[in-house]
């Protein structure tokens, strides 16, 4: 174990009082320059605005769901309306928010810069994938406006194909198209990371954010086509009755389950891995330490991605898969839980002997660690065969996946947005408000979803519009929590918007972080780097940074 | 329970009295709860550990206290530790969970069978004696009860939280679940798989009676015709007995004693005759031709309801057979070995 110490030089205030004259935001003017841009940073901003829009649509449905569940009686809306609410909530949140969230916004913005490239490998494909995202999004919205869809986000047959008169095909088409958008993003990242790294940027000098997005990209490219095929089959079955899933025609409804989960299990890793990358960056920066066991963290991302393909049937333990395949899938599920556990401890030990500060991204990252630990451990409950029988399809599941995806991914997303906001916009956000938002979100989150674990063990099924009265107290708590949580999500929208105009000028490297993105101006130039950088140090090398800034001080002075 | 009977009893009493815990009303429930508490324990310990690390380091190494970070590479020893300990714990959970799974899904051979048909949006139970109930199920204490379930339309899922059992109810195939109720009372039956508009109204009640009360209930609610008797009528009215007459000259195989046997097919394979096979053979006869017979049986797809199929299956089962097949396998592609009935397997 080699250990050396260093001191942070007290930098002279380098903040130029203004945003750099030329940057990617003002390089060209007019709406068209945005709509036809090939700049990965501008596309990232387009995505950021789009997913925020859809997040609040999905959130509005969450609010309606929770409002209905305030009382046991079905009093706010009729059953089919309620079913449309949770279907829309699920479809929008999964396909239009969670899957693209970190990769399409932060990943698009940062990956080329982090590896010292001027853009992604295929800028036009990148823009195309944003358009596909919107076309898919419009189909989904059309399904909503035309009267809704009530399949749930899982499109289960034969319900979706034979028993519903809603806009199933429209919504499925939307999801199908959005799928291509994510395949293109994944391909673009993979090629970029392989081909465009600056001289000296070896694989083991990559920031962990790149590793985790790389792992997620593999999943997007290999998994999403299976979803696409499944949706085509659903549409064909519905429109012309081909019967692959229909038992009365010799088809097999369980085949649908296998195909669907073969995508949708890996999809949860698509949703969480990029968030893990954000957490690595944030924790390292604010404890001023190299990430503990960098290699283990990097490889565990790839391990999670690959093994993620072999556990899909754990969604089917109660569906009459044979007892022996249930054994195998349960064992594999336990094995994929291990890399996540490893990461938690690596992050915790990154703090050890650090010099820790508690800026807003760090608070979100701490929130992530706590919530993701709970989400991960409750996953072990569900991987344990006999326990899964009682817990699956209840509110325990709802709580578990919200802990992982909302407590995990959304916390990570917010950590990342706050962390790189100064780089993206050149301005700081108001410090105390943002801390308040982080704390509010954390409290609201726990109040919303902890009661749902208990509800689940009591047996309250998910997707219930009305429920027996003995479950009410816990549901009221959950709805109260959702209100707090809602406030927690609104706050950043307001103060980040405010900061665009009134925020303090950030400077190039407000956090004194090591990544290449912090060595260029904020907001960056369209071409990122004027000359291709040569990388001669590892990621998170704070000694190198100290050395470099000390030199700059002398040259400036 | 083998952990610590006294402590366990105490805990269970206390929990059952609290509104935050489901009642333990089947023989399985204590086993499920034991695993649940173990999992809760490791979750709480794990979470506390992570909490201590984060808060401990945050206080000890905050910038004011520790202005200069000390760079550390990593540590193979530490990493091995936090790989191996979770792995070991998860493997314990895996084995424990697997044992529980087999306990929950393998019915004892003496279980009494009740059929359940799920449809949008009700549960229909059919007892062998011919009693029908909708969104209700009466069962005795102390006797293992197996449910053989099928859906008439979409996926449903049959769940009794107070028994800690649940099983998906699938269109086109039989699935089974069993339990042994311990405490008289009424408990919720939920449909837990989203099945369309009135999914949340697909709720029933299971009434657990003492064996005496159950006998009384059976007497009072009899419809006069057992399932097998209904099946016999159907067998005649659908014209099945024209071929399956049991005589040597018949064009179809004799069905007496066929249930539970292994049947030789024309294509050379052998199948175990269980509920699923019988249902399948009625609906898709051309796919399983018994060796020695011509493929002349018509399909009854679309002509017999699931209830009718159950009646027919019960009737065929009841045509003298001594074997009760282990009905744990839920698919129609079972190849589980079972004793053969002399005279049925053709060479
Ligand atoms: C205030 C925040 C939120 C609340 C109160 C909330 C509430 C709920 C509830 C009650 C359900 C279950 C519906 C049911 O089973 O009947 C649900 C499902 C779901 N939620 Fe959320 N949610 C919130 C935020 C989110 C976010 C931020 C995401 C993703 C980013 C998300 C993703 C999902 C998904 C994918 C489902 C499954 C939908 C389905 O069952 O088809 N939720 N949510
Ligand atoms: Cu149902």
3D architecture notes:
The complex is a heterodimer of chains A (about 550) and B (about 350). Chain A has about 550 residues and is mainly α. Chain A is built from 17 helices and no strands. In chain A, helix 4 (about 100-115) runs antiparallel to helix 8. Chain B is of the alpha+beta class and about 350 residues long. A 5-stranded mixed beta sheet of chain B has the order 3-2-1-5-8, covered by helices on one side. In chain B, strands 4-10-9-6-7 form a 5-stranded mixed beta sheet. Mean pLDDT of chain B is about 85; it is low at about 320-345. Chains A and B meet through helix 3, helix 9, helix 10, helix 11 and helix 12 of A and helix 2, helix 3, strand 7 and strand 9 of B. Copper (II) ion binds next to loops of chain B.
Q: How many DSSP E strands of chain A?
A: 0
* Major sheet of chain A: none
**Backbone shape of chain A:** globular
H-E string of chain A: HHHHHHHHHHHHHHHHH
Q: Name the largest protein-protein interface in this structure.
A: A-B, 100 and 92 residues
Q: What is the helical fraction of chain B, as a range of percent?
A: 25-40%
* Uncertain spans of chain A: 1-16
- As residue ranges, the low-confidence spans of chain B are 321-347
Kindly report the average pLDDT value of chain B. Answer: 84
Computed CA radius of gyration of chain B, to the nearest angstrom = 27 Å
Oligomeric description of these chains: heterodimer
Helix percent band of chain A: 55-70%
Reported for the largest beta sheet of chain B, the result is: 5 strands, mixed
- How are the strands of the biggest sheet of chain B laid out side by side? 3-2-1-5-8
Rounded radius of gyration of chain A (Å): 24 Å
- Ligands bound to this protein structure: protoporphyrin IX containing FE, copper (II) ion
Strand content of chain B: 15-25%
Distance N to C terminus of chain A: 37 Å
**Total strand segments of chain B:** 12
Along the chain, the helix and strand elements of chain B come as HHHEEEEEEEEEEHHHEEHH
């Amino acid at each position: 174990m080699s250990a050396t110490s260093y001191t942070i030089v007290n930098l002279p205030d380098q903040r130029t009082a203004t945003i750099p004259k030329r940057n990617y935001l003002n390089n060209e003017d007019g709406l068209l320059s945005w709509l036809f841009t090939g700049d990965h940073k501008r596309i990232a901003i387009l995505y950021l605005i789009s997913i925020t829009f859809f997040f609040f649509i999905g959130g509005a449905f969450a609010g309606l769901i929770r409002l209905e569940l305030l009382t046991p009686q079905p009093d706010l809306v009729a059953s089919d309306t309620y079913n449309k609410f949770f279907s829309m909530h699920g479809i929008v949140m999964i396909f239009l928010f969670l899957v693209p969230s970190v990769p399409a916004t932060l990943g698009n913005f940062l990956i080329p810069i982090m590896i010292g490239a001027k853009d992604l490998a295929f800028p036009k494909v990148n823009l195309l994938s944003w358009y596909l995202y919107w076309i898919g999004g419009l189909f989904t919205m059309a399904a909503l406006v035309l009267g809704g869809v009530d399949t749930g986000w899982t499109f289960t047959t034969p319900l979706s194909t034979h028993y519903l008169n809603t806009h199933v095909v429209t919504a499925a088409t939307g999801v199908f198209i959005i799928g291509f958008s994510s395949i293109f993003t994944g391909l673009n990242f993979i090629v970029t990371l392989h081909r465009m790294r600056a001289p000296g940027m070896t694989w083991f000098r990559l920031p962990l954010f790149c590793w985790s997005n790389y792992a997620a990209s593999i999943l997007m490219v290999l998994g999403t086509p299976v979803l696409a095929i499944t949706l085509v089959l659903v549409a064909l079955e519905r429109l012309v009755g081909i019967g692959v899933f229909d038992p009365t025609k010799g088809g097999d409804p369980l085949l649908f389950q296998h195909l669907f989960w073969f995508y949708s299990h890996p999809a949860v890793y698509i949703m969480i891995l990029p968030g893990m990358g954000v957490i690595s960056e944030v924790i390292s920066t604010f404890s001023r330490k190299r990430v503990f066991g960098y290699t283990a963290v990097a490889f565990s991302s790839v391990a999670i991605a690959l093994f993620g393909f072999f556990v899909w049937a754990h969604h089917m333990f109660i569906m009459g898969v044979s007892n022996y395949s249930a054994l195998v899938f349960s064992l594999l599920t336990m094995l994929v839980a291990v890399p996540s556990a490893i990461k938690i401890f690596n992050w915790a030990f990154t703090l050890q002997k650090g010099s820790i500060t508690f800026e807003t991204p760090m608070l979100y990252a701490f929130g992530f660690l706590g919530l993701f630990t709970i989400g991960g451990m409750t996953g072990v409950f569900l991987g344990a065969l006999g326990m899964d029988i009682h817990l699956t399809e209840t509110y325990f599941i709802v709580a578990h996946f919200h802990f992982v995806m909302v407590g995990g991914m959304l916390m990570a997303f917010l950590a990342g947005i706050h962390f790189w906001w100064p780089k993206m916009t050149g301005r700081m956000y108001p410090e105390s408000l943002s801390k308040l938002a982080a704390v509010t979100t954390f409290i609201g989150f726990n109040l919303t979803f902890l009661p749902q674990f208990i509800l689940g063990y009591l047996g309250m099924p998910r997707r219930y519009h009305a429920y027996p009265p003995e479950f009410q107290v816990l549901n009221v708590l959950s709805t109260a929590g959702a209100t707090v949580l809602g406030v927690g999500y609104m706050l950043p929208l307001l103060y980040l918007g405010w900061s665009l105009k009134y925020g303090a000028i950030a400077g190039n490297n407000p956090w004194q972080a090591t990544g290449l993105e912090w060595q260029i101006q904020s907001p960056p130039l369209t071409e990122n780097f004027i000359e291709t950088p040569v990388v001669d140090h590892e990621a998170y090398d704070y000694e190198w940074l100290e050395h470099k800034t000390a030199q700059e001080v002398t040259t400036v002075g | 329970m083998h952990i610590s009977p006294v402590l366990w009893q105490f805990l269970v009493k206390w929990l059952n009295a609290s509104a935050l815990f489901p009642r333990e009303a089947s023989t399985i429930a204590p086993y499920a709860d034991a695993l649940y508490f173990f999992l809760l324990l490791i979750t709480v310990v794990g979470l506390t550990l992570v909490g201590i690390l984060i808060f401990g380091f945050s206080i000890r190494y905050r910038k004011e206290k520790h202005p200069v970070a000390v760079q550390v590479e990593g540590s193979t020893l530490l990493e091995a530790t936090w790989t191996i300990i979770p792995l070991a714990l998860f493997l314990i959970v895996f084995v424990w969970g697997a044992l529980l799974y087999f306990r929950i899904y393998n019915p004892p051979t003496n279980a009494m069978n009740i059929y359940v048909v799920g449809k949008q949006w009700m549960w229909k139970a059919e007892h062998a004696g011919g009693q029908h109930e909708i969104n209700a199920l009466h069962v005795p204490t102390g006797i293992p009860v197996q449910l053989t379930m099928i859906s008439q339309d979409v996926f449903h899922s049959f769940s009794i939280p107070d028994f800690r059992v649940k099983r998906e109810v699938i269109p086109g195939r039989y699935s089974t679940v069993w339990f042994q109720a311990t405490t008289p009372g009424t408990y919720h039956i939920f449909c837990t798989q989203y099945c369309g508009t009135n999914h949340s109204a697909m709720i029933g009640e299971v009434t657990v009676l003492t064996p005496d009360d159950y006998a009384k209930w059976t007497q009072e609610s009899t419809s006069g015709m057992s399932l097998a008797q209904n099946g016999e009528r159907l067998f005649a009215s659908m014209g099945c007995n024209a071929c399956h007459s049991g005589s040597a000259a018949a064009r179809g195989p004799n069905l007496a004693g066929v249930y539970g046997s292994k049947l030789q097919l024309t294509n050379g394979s052998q199948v175990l005759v269980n509920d699923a096979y019988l249902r399948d053979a009625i609906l898709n006869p051309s796919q399983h031709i018994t060796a020695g017979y011509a493929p002349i049986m018509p399909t009854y797809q679309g002509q017999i309801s699931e209830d009718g199929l159950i009646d027919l299956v019960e009737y065929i089962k009841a045509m003298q057979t001594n074997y009760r097949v282990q009905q744990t396998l839920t698919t129609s592609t079972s190849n589980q070995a079972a004793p053969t009935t002399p005279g049925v397997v053709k060479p």
